[in-house]
Amino acid sequence: MSEVETQYVKRGYWNNIEHGSILGGVITTDVRTGSVTIALLAILVTIATAHLWNLVVFVLHMLRADGRPADGLFQQQQALLRTAAAPTSMLADWVKLWWIWRKRTTKALARSVLIFILTSLFAAATIVAGVFSSYVVDTSNLHVLVDSPACGPLRPNDGNTFSANNLAFLDYNGKLQALSVPYAQECYQEGTSLPARCHIFVQPNIPLVPERHDCPFADTICKPFDKPGVTVDSGLVDANDIFGWNLQAHQRLKYRRKTTCGVLKTQEYQTVFEAKDYPFNTRPLLPGEQNLAAHYGLRRSTGEWANLTMAQSLVLANVTRGYTVNTVMRWGAPERDISSIFDPIPELATENADLTLIMVTLNQVRYSAPVEDPFFSAHKPFNWIASTTDNMTVYFSDWPNAMLGCKQKHQLCHARKGEEDFCTDLSFLPDAVNSTSFPNASELQIAGLQLILDASSSSTSYDAALKGLNATAKFASNNGFVTKDFPADQWVTEVVGWEKYIWATFQAYIADYAMGFSARVPALKEYIQTNLTKGEKELCGIQRMVKPSGVMNISVVGLAIVVALAAFFTLFDLIVLKFIIFLGRSRKALAPRIDRWIQYGVFQLQRRVYEANEEGIWVRQDTEVPATIDGQPLCELSVETPRHCCTHTCTKKNGDVVIPRVGIKRGITVMSDATTVYDQTDNEASSKSSSIKKGTMYPAGK
After folding, report:
1. Are strands 137-138 and 210-213 parallel, antiparallel or unpaired?
2. What single-letter DSSP state applies at residue 138?
3. Distance CA 243, CA 51 (A)
4. What is the DSSP track for 621-640?
5. pLDDT of amino acid 678
6. How far apart are CA 533 and CA 697, in angstroms?
7. Maximum Cα–Cα distance for the chain, whole Å?
8. pLDDT tens-digit series, residues 44-60
9. What letter would DSSP give residue 641?
């Protein structure tokens, strides 16, 4: 099978029912947009965790700020908390504090371990959050919704006809078989490890387990061995699973296919006749050529040769190195009977089922050992002499052919609101689905059931057997020589293999409906119905498939959660937290702790250093950001002994003029030594004694 092409992938919002109405919301977009979204999500997560950490640090500081005297370790820890450094930075500084104070105070480690753990956990949580935020955007093996303008059923339009002999239809069947055969062999296997090519459908396969039993027909027609019958029953399969549909609960559909086969007697129901007497030859006959006739029912449209259900050329059987298959079918539905090929004998009489007869001509297939399989039975020894020095004993089949009779039954179900599902009887495949046979079904359900019916009609046991046998894989080469061990139940493997092929074609056929059959065979475009019913249009919009790459899916819920949390933590930290500080100052319980939070701020600590140096006249001492009056210049803080510096326009001893980086208000300038005053409105400076005391505090706003 091939993956759905990018051009047929629906872009934008849709809801994946499999994940629920809330979690299933996704936005399918191109790779570029998805990559940008991943980057934005990473930024949002970083912003959110940063502001959340600020809130955590604020709470920690408030809980510890009880106002009691404490040692230097505690006070430095409070100062570090007040900086609200990033978790990793705070962890590093916290370790430094512990290391410096470990021998200078008591229980330094015990008083530090909580923040060690908290910062480490928060840093790890930040990494995890960043990683998980990337899962908001799926980048591979995505469930996508198919959207194609060519969607629709294969129906004859006005002015043309449509039949099995149509070349476009035959071309499509050939391509469908070429895709389905390897898919069935590789993907319908037990176990969870399947090749990558199997993951193009929402569910790669369904379990098909054979069950052995007695003859499903009259005992007299089955070969006499233990349990000559086998059944492969799919059980009721949800169309949302196996076909990848996106139907809501009240619109769900289910389908069941049950195939029962039995190994039939051959010699008792077959005769030899002269090929020249048979009027339906398709090639020139060889002298003395004989055919083997199988008598399992009356073949239609053959006149006096009606008793010949199938025939095999014995000449070809002696020169063909490999298996060949021939089939005939009888439909059970009266409306389909016109397409039946034969009418079975009483021993094969079947009620409420479709019947298929499969003849496998065993021909000149050679085996290196006797074959005990009752269908491929081979016990005729032959001394094969390839040269004077090369000979061996090989074994040929006991009879030129083997016969298998198979009955197929089908069951269709649809959900109903407030009621149990409606199901048909397990019976033959109906001819059509309509509101009469399914009175409570919605238009969408009618369209879906009809599509399942179309898929079942186009791929039957009749078609599956013709695609070949799994036993051919045991040939040593193309010469029809089986050297590998041949199991005694290979015939069961063949029946199961045909069913796997049928289900694989179901999946491909139904997916092709959504993409458009013309996407596979352009010549089918004129046979695709364009005047779709409401249900058929809805059916075009429910096909899910798996897209390995080329697009991205953004989870709407995940995106909303990340954006909401980022916005919440950011706004709470920037706005709400300020409101709490403002409100808390009016409450006796919170006011002292909030004041301590403010005073441990880096700007307030800086103010205290300048005041200790007797620099600046400060206002707004009880707010987060203090300020000096009139933009007074301040000295650069230094580890040296506090000293005065030039904070105004002045002249050094060497005559150089010093101008402060930040200008001050024009007028009287007070030097830091409070002895020299310059009036910058004049060109000449005059020395006067300052009447303004250094460090004098003024009310806020002055």
Report:
1. unpaired
2. E
3. 47
4. TTSSS-EEGGG---PPP-SS
5. 40
6. 86
7. 144
8. 998 899 889 988 888 88
9. S
449 and 412 in contact (C-beta within 8 Å)? yes
DSSP assignment letter at 353: S
Stretch 466-484: mean pLDDT, rounded? 79
Bridge pairing between strands 650-651 and 627-628: unpaired
For residue 647, name the pLDDT band (cuts at 50, 70, 90). Answer: low
Q: Which two tokens stand for residue 516?
A: 């458009």
Q: What is the DSSP letter of 462?
A: H
* Average pLDDT of the chain, as a whole number: 84
- Rounded Cα gap, residues 631 and 385, in angstroms: 115
Q: Which of 238, 259, 250, 246 is nearest to 452 (CA)?
A: 238
Of the candidate ranges 336-350, 407-421, 655-669, the one whose mean pLDDT is the lowest: 655-669
Question: What secondary structure, in 3-state letters, does 182-226 show?
Answer: HHHHHHCCCCCCCCHHHCCCCCCCCCCCEEEECCCCCHHHECCCC
Q: For residue 234, which of 412, 375, 403, 466 has the smallest C-alpha distance?
A: 412
pLDDT in tens, 661-680: 444 444 444 444 433 334 34
Q: Is 250 within 8 Å of 416 (Cβ atoms)?
A: yes
Q: Are 374 and 384 in contact (CB under 8 A)?
A: no
pLDDT of residue 608: 82
- Name the percent of the chain lying above pLDDT 70: 85
Please give the distance of CA 199 from its chain centroid, rounded to a whole number.
9
Tally DSSP H helices, then E strands, for the chain: 15, 29
Q: Where are the alpha helices (DSSP H) in 72-210?
A: 72-83, 87-101, 113-133, 167-187
**Residue 459 contacts residue 509 (beta carbons within 8 Å):** yes
Lowest mean pLDDT among 493-502, 538-547, 586-595: 586-595
Q: What does the alpha-carbon distance between residue 404 and residue 491 come to, in Å, rounded to a whole number?
A: 9
Determine the length of the chain: 702
Strands 401-416 and 378-385: unpaired
**What's the pLDDT band for 78 if we cut at 50, 70, 90?**
confident
Tokens representing residue 657 in the block? 């003029």
Give the integer Cα–Cα distance in Å for 144 and 670.
75
Contact present, 532 and 157 (Cβ < 8 Å) = no
Cα gap 140→5, rounded to integer Å:
15
Task: Give one DSSP letter per residue of 570-598, joined into a string.
Answer: HHIIIIIHHHHHHHHTTSTTTHHHHHHHH
Cα dihedral sign, 37-39-40-45: positive
The predicted structure's pLDDT at residue 666: 43
Q: Predicted confidence band at 375 (pLDDT cuts at 50, 70, 90)?
A: very high
Q: Using an 8 Å Cβ cutoff, are 232 and 258 in contact?
A: yes
> What CA–CA distance (Å, rounded) separates 696 from 504?
91
CA distance 702 to 691: 18
